[in-house]
Write a structure and sequence with these properties.
D-Maltodextrin-Binding Protein, domain 2, eight-stranded mixed β-sheet, alpha/beta
Length: 198
Amino acid sequence: MITVYAASKLLPKILLEIKKQYPEFKFIIKQHENEKEINADLFIYSTKEKAHGPNIINLLEEEILLAVPNEHPFASKQDICLEKLASEPIISLQKGKGLRDITTSYCRMAGFEPNIILESDDPATVRGFIGVGLGIGFLPAITWQGGVDNSIKLLSIANIQCKRYINLSFREGRYRSKATKVVCDHIVKYFEQLQQFE
């Protein structure tokens, strides 16, 4: 079983490549659990700081960008100071999702509580509501950008280095099957290649 709290959009490509080589492998993917799935063989999640541990692999460090609809006043800018968002309506993932917790932490560092007017458990829904002009939001630069269309403008955050880490962990001290090792290796390789093209 694989529990995915981050970079879920990339998983289909990874698993497709694995299935081509190992058609006998079967997968159970959990994405919308409210708590960490402790029984998962592999767990993909995000953190504000780099995670450490014998059973943790850091897959990716990525910038978090501000996404605004094209008609928004901020759309003429290339970057923006985070405190300028204090009164803006924000579209976000639900509480408990890694990205939501990370971006809320950055907003608090800038001196305000985010004005979240709509939350969803689905990244595509978040992008969709930003695109139609309901509010602004935060998007990871690498793992979410493929789903951004021309209705959204992406801006860098100027005064705080907003970023997150994507991590892969596996159950420590427990037997790891051949399938788990293969999937783990493929995920690591995929993220290494992803960074080469950035």
